[in-house]
Each structure stands twice: as structure tokens, then as C-alpha cells.
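Message: I would value a second opinion on how I read folds in C-alpha cell form. Give me a protein, with the fold worked out from its sequence. Write it directly below this note and I will take it from there.
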Amino acid sequence: MMYSILWFPFPGATIEALVDDNGVLQGVFYQDPDMKKMFASYPQLILIDATYRLNDLRMPLFVMLVVDGNGASEIVALWFVVQEDRRTLQKMIRIFKEHNQNSGQIAVVMADKDMTERDVITVELPNAQILICLFHALRNFSREVTMEKMGISSDERLAVLEVLTAMAYARDEATYEVHYKTLMDMNLKTVLDYFDKNWRDSKNEWVDCFKDGYSNYLTRTNNRLESMNHQLKTVITKSSTMVVFWRDLMICLKSVNTERNHKATQVQSRVPVVFGQETSTDQKQYKTHLTPFAFEYVSKELQKVTGNASARLFEGVSVDSCTCRFWTSMSLPCHHIIAYRQHVGDDVFAPDLCAQRWKRDFYMASHPVFSVQQFNNSDDGNNNHVDQPSMAVHVAIPAAPTRTLSQNEKYRTAFHLLQSIASGVSEMGMREYRHTMGMLKSVETCIKNGDEFIVAEVVKQTGHFLSLHLR
């Protein structure tokens, strides 16, 4: 079994192997105790994406990230699968939910519009709003709005892409509608039909001004995931065997954790110091109360406040709420709230208006490196017994019905077949080996050239031999 030779350096980790009715591996889910702890502390925003070509079976690796209280990216789950279909993705998300009780607190999921079966996320995480990475949206526009597909000229294509980009970056709904009208006025029916069918009704997922209406913490792209995937590809040997892939993955996780812990200890060891222009009592209090990442944002909001605030500034503002994008996205005091509190004589320092995730004390308490109780082979930190090291759990799913296979799936099927052929050929005598290799090279030539060929079985007195008749 594959699982007997995998290396598990994190005691207490959850590893579940997904197999079909025939016992064929369909995927592996992985989550260690630190990942569980970080998700439990910061479940509101999830970023998810897949990275490819890390193993010789071409099984994509899905990475799930959160953003911690100091703005750092934290892996909270991993899985790799044979098929990126609805059933497999649904099962992986259900495994995640099973082992993370507060998954219902996920408010936002940042994903790729191309991600298979996005409706699975909607069904399995009904409280979450799916947002599309800005760069993925722009990439989709560039791929789909072509001269060939839309029947438009090169100049028209450039003009359309310019308008679509402006729509994606729109800072308010009125600006978005102006750009949409510009698109309609171009009178390009194929383009407008494409947009209305695929993007118009989902504007809340990809347009900046609408995305910031959710707790996305001003995260508009999957750049965090791209950076993490780059780290993985730096450590993991490309197209490696599954054993080497897993070993490299575990090494990379340990390296990422070490770097993360180092940065966290810096937050603890560096006493907040206020100097220069940061002389107000309010700034001192906020700097002591918040993590460095959160304070940097609040400090900029404090600097925006002037003594002569107009009445217009206070529209939709109270001492504890605002309709602006910063407040709804970050859950930190914006300059509108700060100015209004000054205006009515209330304290500018309002710790209750800062989401718990941004508070320094909470960050220290939630970060694994500061945990008093360390995970070991007998206790997981919650008085729960943990067996010697992690075990694989096989979860059966029905075998997939006949369907159109993806390129990766075709590759894996052919790869397994050719491995079996190679094993058989290696045991042949030299005469039979040379003859068989000649036939296989002929097959390879036909496939590369797109030629058809026939395999015929010729029966001789000495036995059965395969002969190839090519055309």
C-alpha cells in the first residue's frame, strides 16, 4: 500500500485517502494540527486554488489558505486528486467540514472562475460568498474575447478588453454602470451576449466595488496562493514519483512553518514604539492594541482625518458603523467613523470596533508558536489522544461512469498502461526485446504523426506473437 511508505512528520495530522468501489485511489486529504488551529482562529476568508505537474501522475494539488491576524498566509488544508470533478471536490470539502467544526463561519471563498464545479462550494458552504480573483477574471476575458470566437477586429477586441478591465476595477456601482453602457454602445452582439451570459449576474464576485462589500480584507486576487504555489514548486521536484512528491511536500510545509514562526516571534519580541508623527494618544493605543499589519491600515485612516470635516463625510456614518469599502472589508475603524467620533466628542480609540482577528492579544493566543501545550504523540493540545503518527482513512466513493476524460486523466490512464508494458518488456530476452521495441517505436511514430494503425494477433506453432500492420 502507498500509505506504508509515506512520511508523516506532524503527529496528530488528519490524512484521508479517497478510493472508488474498485479500490483505486482517487485522492488524499491532509491537515495537520497547526492547520486546524489556524483555521479555527481565522475562518472568515478562504483562498483555494490548484497547482499542477508536481507529481508523475499529474494529480493536481489543491491548497487552501487563510489570512492570519498579522496579514500572513497560512495553509489550512491540502488535497490532491485524480479527477477534478464535482463528486471528488464535494467529498474533499465534506472531509474538511467534518474535521473543522467552525467551517460554517467561512464568509468568503476566493477562487478561480475556471475552478471545476464552483456550485459545489455554494452548496457545501452556503454561508460563504464566492469571489473571483481579479487576475483570473482578466485572464478569462483575454482568453474568451478573441477575434476568432467573437468575430471582431483586432481594434474592437482591444477596446472591449479595455472596457472590461475598467469594469473590474470600478470603485463604485455608478462607475461600473457607465462602463457597462459603453460596452453596450459598441454594438458587438457576440461580445455582449457572452458578457451577459457569463459575467453580468455575477458582478458581485469579480468587480472591485462589489467584492469589498464582503469580509475579504481587501484581498482581490489569489496572489497569496500564487506565492505559496511558487514556494511549493521550488521545493518539490517537478513530475516526481508520489513518494518523492510527498516527502518534498512535507519538507516544504516544515520550512513554511519555520518561517512563519520566526515572523510571529518578531511580533512578540518587538515592543510597539510610537515616534515621529505618531504622537497622539489614539495612535499609541491602537498600535499597542493591534497587530503591526492591522495598525498600518488604521494609522493611514487616522492620518486622513482633518479638523474640518464636511457634513457629506458623515452620510451613512455613525460612531460604530459605516458604509465605506474599508469598513465593510476590513472590520477596522475607517476615517469616516474616526472623524464622526471626534465630531460628537466620543473616544477615537474604539477597541470594540476592531475585529478580534486583528487584536495583538488574540494573535498571540491563537498562533501555534505561542501555544503553551505543544502537540506530542499522546495529546493534541485539547486533551484528545493522538495515536502514533497519523493514519490514512479510506473513504469509498462510487466508480465514475463513462464520460469524456480530461487531458490529465488520459495521461494518467496511458501512463499506467505503459508502465505495465515496460515491466513486461524488461523481462524479455534480447531477441524478443529488440523485436518488441521496434514495434513500439513504430506505434510511437504513428501516434506522433497522427497516423492510424492496426494491431493484429498472428498465431504460430511456437505460440502467440503480436504483429503490427501500420497504415
Residues 1-6, 373-396, 457-471 have pLDDT under 50 and may be disordered. The longest strand covers residues 73-81. Strands lie at 14-20, 25-31, 45-51, 61-67, 73-81, 108-111, 129-132, 392-397, 453-460, 463-470. The radius of gyration is 28 Å.
